[in-house]
Amino acid sequence: MRAGDLRRALRDALLVGALLWIAVTAAFVRDRNKDATQRALRHAQAAAELVAIGDTPPTPTAAAAIVGAPVASKEHGFLRRRVAHTPTGERALGGPTAPAVDKLLYDAAGRYDKDGPFVAMLTDGSERAVAAVATARGPAIAITAGPEPRAPVPWLAVLGHLGLMLVLVGVGAVLGGRARGVGVALGLATWAFPAYFAGGPGLALAMLAVAAAAGWAHATGATDRAIASVRAHKVALSFLAPAGVAMIVLVVVPFAVGLALGFYDHHHGRWTFVGLANFKRILTGDGHALSDPLNFWFILGVTLAWTFVNVMLHVLFGTLFALILRQPWLKARGLWRVLLIVPWAVPNYITALIWKGMFAGEYGAVNSILSGLGLDRVSWFSSWATAFSANVATNTWLGFPFMMVVALGALESIPKELEEAAEVDGASSWQRFKEITLPHLKPALGPAIVLGSIWTFNMFNVIALVSGGKPGGSTDILVTDAYRWAFERGEQYGMAAALGTIIFLLLLGWTLIGRGLTKGDEEARP
Amino acid sequence: GRSDAAVTVWHAYDKDERVAIEALAADWNAANPERKVELVAMPYDGFGDKLGSAIPNGNGPDLFLYSQDRLGDWTAAGVLEPIEFWIDDATAARYTPEALASLAYHDALWGLPVAVKSLALYVRTDLVPTPPRTTDELLAMAPALTARGVFALAYPVDDLYAHAPWLHGFGGRAMDGDTPTIATAEAVAAAGFARELVQRKVVPAEADAALTATLFAEGKAAMAISGPWFIADIPAGVPYTITTLPTVSATGLAAAPYLGTEGILMSARARDKDAAIAVALAFTSDAAAALRAERAGQVVPNPAAYRGALADAPRLAAFRRQLAHTVPMPVSPAMRAVWTPYKNALGQVVSGAASPAAALEKAATDIANYARTEGAR
Amino acid sequence: MCEVRLTGISKRYEGAKGGRATIERLDLTFPSGELVVMIGPSGCGKSTTLRIVAGLEEPTTGSVWIDGKDVTALPPAQRDLAMVFQSYALYPHMTVFENLAFALRIRRAPEAEITERVTTVAEALGLSALLERRPKALSGGQRQRVAIGRAVVRKPKVFLFDEPLSNLDAKLRGEMRREIARIHKDAGTTSLYVTHDQIEAMTLADRIVVLRDGDVQQIGSPLEIYQRPANRFVAGFFGTPTMNFLSAAVEGAGGGRKARGLGFAVPVPAPAELGGEVVLGIRPEDVSLEPGGDRVALPGAVTLREVLGAEVVLHVTSPAGDVTVRAPAQTPARAGDAVTVYLDPSALHWFDAQSQVRAA
Amino acid sequence: MCEVRLTGISKRYEGAKGGRATIERLDLTFPSGELVVMIGPSGCGKSTTLRIVAGLEEPTTGSVWIDGKDVTALPPAQRDLAMVFQSYALYPHMTVFENLAFALRIRRAPEAEITERVTTVAEALGLSALLERRPKALSGGQRQRVAIGRAVVRKPKVFLFDEPLSNLDAKLRGEMRREIARIHKDAGTTSLYVTHDQIEAMTLADRIVVLRDGDVQQIGSPLEIYQRPANRFVAGFFGTPTMNFLSAAVEGAGGGRKARGLGFAVPVPAPAELGGEVVLGIRPEDVSLEPGGDRVALPGAVTLREVLGAEVVLHVTSPAGDVTVRAPAQTPARAGDAVTVYLDPSALHWFDAQSQVRAA
Amino acid sequence: MSVRRPKLPIVVGVHALLAIATMAVLYPVMLVVKKAFEPGRQFALSPSPIPKRVTLEHFRALLSARGSHGELAFLQHTISSLAVAIATTVVGIALSCTAAYALSRFRFPGRKAALTSFLVVQMFPASLLMIPLYVLLHELGLLNSLSGLVLVYSTTAIPFCVWTLKGYFDSLPRELFEAARVDGAGPIRIFWTIVLPLARPGIAVTALFSFMTAWNEFILASTFLTDEGKYTLPVMLKSSVGQFSADWGQFAAGALLTSLPVMALFYVVQKYLVGGLTAGAVKG
Ligand SMILES: Nc1ncnc2c1ncn2[C@@H]1O[C@H](COP(=O)(O)OP(=O)(O)OP(=O)(O)O)[C@@H](O)[C@H]1O
Ligand SMILES: Nc1ncnc2c1ncn2[C@@H]1O[C@H](COP(=O)(O)OP(=O)(O)OP(=O)(O)O)[C@@H](O)[C@H]1O
Ligand SMILES: [Mg+2]
Ligand SMILES: [Mg+2]
After folding, report:
1. Single pTM value for the model
2. Domains (ranges, CATH) in chain C?
3. D87 CA distance to ligand 4 centroid (A)?
C-alpha cells in the first residue's frame, strides 16, 4: 500500500515537476538573455559617454565616434554624407567601398536625428548594442563588439531542487493520509524559489498555484482518474494520437495566433492592442449603410447566399452524376468518371479565368450562345445578380466533381440487399433513392456538405478571379473582404484577423447546428 | 543548395528578362568566384507577400528585384536596408534622376533602378496609319473604325493604372504626398472622359489586360494602351508601332502614365551588405543595363546605356519619349488603399451606374475610412 | 388469383467459373392461390428460384410468368409481390414501425390505414412493444419477425417466403405458421415457401416441390411426397429421422420373387417390375422392435439411443447396414444391447439400385 | 477443462429507455466439459448471455468467470473462446478458406497445419467445393456452415454456438449435430449452445437451461426438463406440439380428492399438496383417441387435422379447452368429426393455478 | 439498384444525355486545350474549342525550359510535385485512417470534442493563417523543405479524410469486429485485416482528395519554398504569369500536363469505388 502511495506521489510530482522545470528553465534563459542584453546596453552607453567627452572607449568596442550632421548632395536630396570624428582623426562616412561598420555609425546617427539619444540592440541578430549620446558636434555613438558572455546553467541548484522536491513528496507519502497531497504540493512549491529568481514574483506565485493545484489533484485522486482514463482508452488514444498531434502542432498554434491578431491594430508595421475595436468596427458596418456592398452585413448576406447556392448545386450535380455513373450497365464507366472529374483536375487558376472569359460581354462564349439563341447579350459583371450567377456557375463547375467522387464512394457502401428489399416492396426508383439511398448517403455526404460549406464560405479564388467583386465590390464575400483588409486597404492585418475570427465563429455555429441535425446518424448504423 | 557565402537575389523575371539577368549573374560569378551570386526565380503572384514574411524571419534574400510601389510598407516594417550610405554623386549620375528619385522615400534611398515601366500607345498601322496626337483626333477616328466592328482603342478602363494617363492629362493626381486626392474636379473630368470613351464605343467596356491583348492581336482594336511587356503578346505578322499617348484636348496636357521603377533592393537582414551593394551596383551598371536593354528589351534608366544600336532601337525610343510625360508612381503606403475603391468607382462610372462625381466621392469616403486606423484614434 | 410459372429457367452466376449452372432448365408452375413449399438441400437453388421469381436475379435463360403475363423483363416493383428475405434485409435506418409501414407508404396508403395495419400485424407477430426500435437493437428472432411482418402487411399477388421461421422458437413458430396459413388463405394469394422444417412443409403446403442441385425431383402433395417419394433422394431427404436404406438383390421370378440382402429377405410385391439390384427404403417409424404380422426380422445391436422426449430414436447396426428405429419413450434398449428389429414389408419403398428411381 | 460461471449478471441496453433490464441478476454455472443448451422464447436474452460470456457486451453488473478467473474486464481475444454468431458475421472480403483460416493465422499456426485443419473442417461441413468463394456467393445454409467452421477450426476453452444449425436442411442438420457433438467430446471443451430445435436440445445437451425474459426458469437434464418441467412456462415451451393445459379445481379432501374441470374429473395424486385452482398439463402424445386403463374421457370435436407423415396432430375442442392430440398416421378422424379424447392421468403435470409452479 | 438493365431506349438515352453533359462540362477545358495547342500567348476571341492553327511550341518551351543550374525544370518540378503529393497522400491517409478508426470504433472521453475540433480547424480563412504558419515552419526548421509542405498539406487534408473515413468505418457491420475480436485479433490487426480492406472506396476517395490537396496547391508552396530546385509544378506554372502580362499558351500547356497525373490516378482509384464489399457478411 505504502509503496503504491509513494510511487503515485512521485509520479504526480514528476509529471507536474517536468512542466514546472520547463517553465523555470524558460524563465532562466530569458533572464540570462535579459541580463546579457542589459550588460551590452550598459557597455554601449558607457562607451558612448566616454567618446562624448573625448576619451577612448574601452575595448572591445566595434566602432565609436562622434558623427556630424548630414550634408545632402546637391543633385539628390536623399544622398547625404556624414563625417565621423574620432580621437585619431575624422573621416567621411560612406561611399561605394566604405567599411560595413561605418554604416552602423551612419545609421545610428540617422536614428539619433529622428529619435534623440538612445541605446538599443542592433536588429541584425549580432547581439551588439549601440548607444548615442548628445554632444555639441553631434551624437557620440558607440557600438559594442559582440555578444556578452552568459551565466552558466546552475546544474547543482537544479539537482538540489529536484532532490528537495522528491524528499518532500516522499515524506508526505510515507506519512500517508492528508500528508500525501501536502507533500506533493510542498515538493512542487520548491520550484517557486528558482522561479522567483529567474522570472520574478509573478512566476513564483504561478508556480505556487500550480503546486497547490497538483497537490489538490493528487489528494482527491483526480490525477489517478485522469491517468486511469488514459490507460483505459490507450488503444483508441494511440490511434488518434498521430493525427491529433499533427493537428495541434500545425493548426492550433497558427490558429490561436490568428485569433489573437484580431485584437490588434496593424499600422505601418506596428501592432497595437485595441481590444474589441476591430470587431466593433466590422459589426457596426464601418460607417457604411446596410445597402452598401462594403457593409459587413451586406457581405455576410452575399456570403450566405453564395455558400448555400453553391453547396446545394454541388450536391445536386455531384449526386446526380454519381447516381448515373454507378449504374453497372453504363458503358465505359471508368472513362466517364475520369472525364467528369476533369474540372477538379485542371488547376483552377486557369479554368476560373476561362470562365471569366466565357462571361465577357462582347466576345464571351456565353453571350455568343445567348445571341445564337436569339436572346440579348448580358453584361455579366455590371449587375449583382448576373455577376453573382457567373461566380456561382464557375464554382459549381469547379466543385461538383468533388461531391461526385464523395457520393460515388458513399453510394457503394449501401448494401445492395436493402435496395432489393425496397424494390420488392414496390418502391419506384425515385422512392428507393429517397427512402434508402439518401438516408445512407447522409452519413458520408453530411461531413462533405459541412466541410464543403466551410470551404465555399472561404472560397477566395473564384470570387477574386471571376467577378473580382464587381460590380462595386457587391459580389465580394467575407474572405475576399478580409483579403482586401489585409492587402488592399493598407495592410490592416488586425481587421483582417478580426474578420477571420468572425468567419470562424459563424462557421462554428453552423457546424454545431449541422452536427445537431445529423446526430441521429451514428445510431442508425449497423 | 545555397551556399552561405553567396549573395542571394530573388526575382520574378521570366523569359528574356530572366535570360538577361542570368547572364549578368554569370558574368559576376566568373569575375567574383569567392562571392557568388545566386539567382532564385519566384512566381510574381505572392512574391511581395513572401518577401514581407521571409525577410523579417531571416529567410529572405540579400537582394531582390521589385517595383517601388511597396516601398512605403516595407520601409515602415523594417524590411529594407537604406543604401544611400554607399551611393555618391558619381554613382548616382549613372541613372536618370527621376528613376533614382522614385526609389527614395523619407529622405533615404532604398534601391538602385533596374528598369522603368510606363504605358504607351500601341497602334496597328494597318488600321490606323497615323496615330492620333490628341484625344479629339482619337474620338474623331473612332466612328469609322466602329463601323468596321473595330474599337479604336482598348485598355482596362476601370483600372486606375491604365486610367492614370487621362487622370494626369486632365491635371489630376491620385495622391498628394501621403494623402489621397480622389474626388477632385480634374479626376471627375478624367472619369467623365473615360465614360465618354465607353459610351461612344471608342473603347470596350469590359476589357482587362488579357482581352486588350487579344483584341489588339486580332484586329478588333486598332490601338491599345499598354507597357513594354505588351510586345511579347503581339503575334508575329501584326503591323504595329509604339508611340506616345495623345494629348488631352480639353486641357492641352499630355496624357501621362505612371512611371514605375523596378529596383534592386537590399534586405535589412542581408548577411554581407558590402557584397550585396557591390552586386547591386554591378547589375545596374551601364554595361549591365545595355545588356538588359538589348536582350530583354527593358527600358533601362541608364542614359549612357543607349549607345550604338540601342541608341535608336524604335521600341525603346518610344518608351523613352513617353518617359518625358510620366508621373512617378506614388510610394506612399496610403496609395495601396486607393486602387480597389478607384476601380469600383471607375466601373460604376463607365457602366453608367453612377455619375463620375458621385462615384469618386464614394471612393474618397471609403479610402478615408480605411485610413482611419484604430491606432491613430 | 394468380399463377406463377417458370419456363426453361437456367441461372448461371457470373464469376462462377466452370462447373454447372445453379439452375438448369427449370420448368415449374405454382398454381394460383396455392401455397407451394420448396425444399431441398442447402445450396440447391431455392433462394435463387425465389429471387428469380421476384425479379432480383435475371435468369440466364427462360421466362417468368405471373398471371399469364411474361414478366421476365419487369422490375420487381412492377411484379406486385412480397418477399421475406432469408437474410431479412431490414432497413437499418428505420424503426420497426417504419420498416413495416414502408411498403404501404410507398403505395401512398392513408396514414390511418397504415397505422391500423401495422399495428395489427405487429400484434400478430408479437412486435407491439418493439415498434420504436431500430433493427440493430432487436434479437435475431425479432428481426426475423419484422421481416415477415414487412411482407404480410400488404396484400400482393404473390408471397415469397425464404425460410421465414428458422430463427424462432418452436412455440412461436407454430403460432407464426398458423398466422401465415391464415394470411395466405384470407388473401387467396399464391405463396412460395422455402423451409427446412418438415412440420411446416407438411402442414402448410398445398404442394411440395423437392429440388436438388437446381433440378426438380418431385412435385406433389405433402402426403404423396412422404408416402410415395419418387426416388431415393426424395425418400432420404424428407422425413426425420431419415429413411433407412438397405441394399438387396432380387432373386427368383414370378410371384415368388424375393429380395435378399445381408441377413434378411423380403417378398417382392406383385406389380413391381424389378430385377437385379434394388434398394429398400423404410422409415424409422415403420421399423419396430416388436415382432408381429409378417414383419421381417433383422438382427443388430444398438449403437446410440437418442431420447427425444415422447419417443426415442435407436441407431442400430445390422449386417445389412445401419437402421434407425423410432420407438416409444419407454423402450428399454440401451446402447450396446443386441436387438432384433422388425421391418414392415408393406411399408417398404422399392428403388432401383441403378437409377435410384422408385419402383414400388 | 474449464468452467464458465456468471454471477449476478445484469444487462440493460443503453438507450432502452425505461422498462426492465434484458437480464436481471443472472447466476449460472456451465460446468467444465459439458454442453449446455440454452432455450427460451425469442428475445429472452440467450444471445445476450452468450455475448456477455464472449466479452462482446459489458454486463451492467456482475462478473464472468472462466476457469475460476474473473474475466469480466478481459477483451474477447484474451478469453480464448470461439463463437458461432447468430448472424454469421463472415469476413466478406475473404474467401471461405481465409475465413476459416483467420483465427489460426492470428495464432501464427504453421501454414501446413492451417491448410490441414481447414481442409478437414471444410470436408466435415461439406464446404470443400466452396473454399475459393466469397461469402456473398454462398447460399444461406452454406454461410451458416462457414460460420460454424470458423469456430470449430480451432480448439478454444469454450465454444459458444448461437443457433448454429437454424438454416440447414434436416438431413444436414442431423449430420452437423453429430459433428458438433463429436468435436465437443473430442476437445472436452465447455460449450454453450442456443437452439430452438427440440431434437438438438434433447440429443446434444448434457444440461438444458430454460430462460424467460432473462430469468432462469429451470436447469436440468433434457429428460428432466421434458418429464418434470418446473413450471407451466417450461412445460408449455418445451415439446412439440406443445403441452395441453386444462383448468380444474381440487375438490374434496384426503385420498379421495379430485380435480374437476369442465367435462372431466381426475383423482389428485397422493403426495400433491394441492388445493383450490390447478392447471393440468398433458402432452399431446399422452392424449389418445382410444379408451383404456384408467384414462379419463373428454368429449370434443376435431377442428384441424395436421398430417405430419408418420403421425397426425389433431386439434380438438372440448368444453375444458383446446386439446392437441398426437395420433398414428392411420387415425381416421377428420376435421369436424366428434371424438372423445382420453387423458392418461399418470402422465398429468400438476401446476398451481396461482403460482404456475409444478405441484406434482 | 436494380440488377436488371433498363430498356434499350433508356440506356441509349442516358448515354446520350451523359455525353452531352460531359461535353458541356468539358467545354471550358477544351478552351484550355485549344490555347495549349494554338500559337501565341493570348487567348483567341473565338468561342470555338477548335484551334485554327496547331503548334506544339508551348509544350516544347515548357518541357525544355531549364532552371538556373541547367536542369530540365519541368521534369524536376514534376518530380518534386509527385514526391510531395504522394507523400501527402500516404501520410494523410495513414494519419486519418488511424484517427478515423479510433473515432469510429472506440468510445472514449473527448471523442465528440475531437471530432468537432477536426472540423473547427478548417474554419479560419487559410490566407490569414499563412503568416503564423510561416513563422511556425520557420521555428521547426521546415521552411524551404518538401517535408514541411507535406506536413502542412497532410494536416490540411486530415479533417476531410477523418470525417469521410469515419463514415465508411461506421457503416461496416459491428458483428465483423466482434467476430474478429473473438477470433483473437487485436485492434491493430482488426484495423489492418478487416477495416482497411472493407473501406477501400473510402480510402480511394480520401486518397484522391489528399493527392489533390497537395498537387494543385500554389500559395503555400510558393511562399515556403525558396529554392528553385524544390519548386512544385504549380509554382513553375505560375511563373509564366507576370505582373502585367502572362504567357497563357505555356500556362495552358502546363495546366494540361499537370492534370494528366490526376486523371491517371483517378482512373486507377475509381476501380476501388466498388460496392457490395460487405455483402454476405451478416444476416439481419
Ligand atoms: N442493442 C440493443 N439495444 C436494446 N435492446 C436490445 C439490443 N440488443 C438486444 N436487445 C433486446 O434484448 C433482448 C434480448 O435479446 P437477445 O438477442 O439476447 O435475444 P435472444 O434470446 O437471442 O432472442 P432470439 O432467439 O430471437 O435470437 C431482446 O428483447 C432484444 O430486443
Ligand atoms: N452470387 C453467387 N455467385 C456464385 N454462386 C452463387 C451465388 N449465389 C448463390 N450461389 C450458389 O448457388 C447455389 C444456390 O444458392 P441458393 O442461395 O439458391 O441456395 P438455397 O437453396 O437457398 O440454399 P440454402 O438452403 O442454404 O439457403 C449455391 O450453391 C450457392 O453457392
Ligand atoms: Mg437460401
Ligand atoms: Mg439470439
Report:
1. 0.90
2. 4-235 (3.40.50.300), 240-352 (2.40.50.140)
3. 9
